[in-house]
């Protein structure tokens, strides 16, 4: 087992169609096999799936190659952390248990190599985006989740999958545009945190745009991009770098 820490986010497996999703999944599996030789920890920082809902005895079809490879890395001793995102916030206990991963629903603060990290998907953080913050409260309400679980999986999974795709279409190409530091909500969130305590690296997803920005004098905000357009990921081995996967599609 190696000593590197890897970060990846926003694969959105299942989108926009079965063919392109399968190609992306195979590329992801190949990447997982490559990092296996030197990875100590892997953070999957949200939206691994474009949609996910776990019923007690039913889950969405597909993604067996990705799930199996993640479980294989976990079995080999690599520590895996799985974050829920805004598209797969209905991950409960099946995937963590099947993969052997620790599940996180909110940002965490950890230390690697003497550096302090804040890691999270990033949805609902910082100023603005009040509409989504309200919707997230509804989707994470335990009673409403229980009510939704009473819907037959054939209809419930179809409905939620349709909503997920509509949500992604609504953002359009907005994710590919850098809005300036004053309008980047996660950047502003990083500045707010630094007023209270020091963090060396803020590592988020959600934004879909690869970013490596200096915050203050000694901190950096890293957005991991996505695996729909950019195929980027983060790696820490004493220094934090944002890299692009070299595998062909």
UniProtKB/TrEMBL annotation:
Keyword field contains Chloroplast: no
The keyword Chaperone appears for this protein: no
Domain (Calcineurin-like phosphoesterase): residue spans on this chain: 4-209
Any one of the GO BP annotations: lipid A biosynthetic process
Sorted UniProt keywords: Cell inner membrane, Cell membrane, Hydrolase, Manganese, Membrane, Metal-binding
A single Gene Ontology CC term: membrane
UniProt GO molecular function: metal ion binding; UDP-2,3-diacylglucosamine hydrolase activity
Signal sequence annotation: none
PANTHER family: UDP-2,3-DIACYLGLUCOSAMINE HYDROLASE, UDP-2,3-DIACYLGLUCOSAMINE HYDROLASE-RELATED
Official protein name in the record: UDP-2,3-diacylglucosamine diphosphatase
Organism for this UniProt entry: Phaeocystidibacter luteus
């Amino acid at each position: 087992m190696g000593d590197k820490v890897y970060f990846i986010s926003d694969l959105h497996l299942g989108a926009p169609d079965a063919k392109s999703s399968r190609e992306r999944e195979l590329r992801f599996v190949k990447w997982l096999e490559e990092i296996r030789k030197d990875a100590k920890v892997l953070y999957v920082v949200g939206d691994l799936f474009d949609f996910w809902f776990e019923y007690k005895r039913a889950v969405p079809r597909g993604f067996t190659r990705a799930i199996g490879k993640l479980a294989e890395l976990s079995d080999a001793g690599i520590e895996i952390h799985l974050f829920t995102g805004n598209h797969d916030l209905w991950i409960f206990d099946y995937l963590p248990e099947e993969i052997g991963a620790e599940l996180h629903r909110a940002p965490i603060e950890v230390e690697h190599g003497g550096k302090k990290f804040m890691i999270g998907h990033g949805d609902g953080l910082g100023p603005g985006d009040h509409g989504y913050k309200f919707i997230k409260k509804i989707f994470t309400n335990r009673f409403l989740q229980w009510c939704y679980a009473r819907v037959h999986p054939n209809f419930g999974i179809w409905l939620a999958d349709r909503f997920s795709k509509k949500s992604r279409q609504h953002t359009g190409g907005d994710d590919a545009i850098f809005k300036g530091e004053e309008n980047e909500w996660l950047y502003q969130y990083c500045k707010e945190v630094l007023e209270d305590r020091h963090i060396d690296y803020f590592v988020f997803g959600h934004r879909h745009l690869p970013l490596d920005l200096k915050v203050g004098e000694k901190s950096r905000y890293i957005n991991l991009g996505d695996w729909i357009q950019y195929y980027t990921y983060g790696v820490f081995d004493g220094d934090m770098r944002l890299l692009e996967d070299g595998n062909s599609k």
